[in-house]
TrEMBL record:
Signal peptide: none annotated. Gene3D superfamilies: STAS domain (3.30.750.24). PANTHER family: ANTI-SIGMA FACTOR ANTAGONIST TM_1081-RELATED, ANTI-SIGMA FACTOR ANTAGONIST TM_1081-RELATED-RELATED. Belongs to the anti-sigma-factor antagonist family. The gene is bldG. It comes from Luedemannella flava. This is Anti-sigma factor antagonist. Pfam families: STAS (PF01740). InterPro entries: Anti-sigma_ant, STAS_dom, STAS_dom_sf.
Length: 115
């Protein structure tokens, strides 16, 4: 399955909406897009994973690397998803305690306003 990505500005954040599967084949595309957004000046990014069906360790690695990079820029990476199968992956790996996770883009951007 292919990966679809759409970026937009919303409430002072860059929101990247993703659909499809994030795996060893598509993770490089995700990394490139996030690096492009950072290169254009985005420092507060919300990644909407609501339409993601699957994510593997390479996808998790991309998100972790971007998270570290944004923190070094005094920025933030927030994730949006509510599917139990994705929540389970983040819980099992312990990444649910690393990332700020929200159930909607509105909640993620509202939390960023209080920084």
């Amino acid at each position: 399955m292919e990966l679809s990505m759409t970026a937009r500005a919303e409430a002072g954040h860059t929101v990247l909406e993703i659909g499809g599967e994030i795996d060893v084949y598509t993770a490089p595309q995700l990394r490139e897009e996030l690096q492009r957004l950072i290169g254009e000046g985005a420092t507060d990014i919300v990644v909407d994973l609501s339409r993601v069906d699957f994510i593997d360790s390479s996808g998790l690695g991309v998100l972790a690397g971007i998270h570290r990079r944004l923190r070094s820029l005094d920025g933030s990476l927030r994730l949006v998803y509510s599917h139990e199968r994705l929540l389970k992956i983040f819980r099992i790996t312990g990444l649910d305690s690393v990332f700020d996770i929200y159930d909607s883009v509105d909640a993620a951007t509202a939390a960023g306003q209080s920084r």
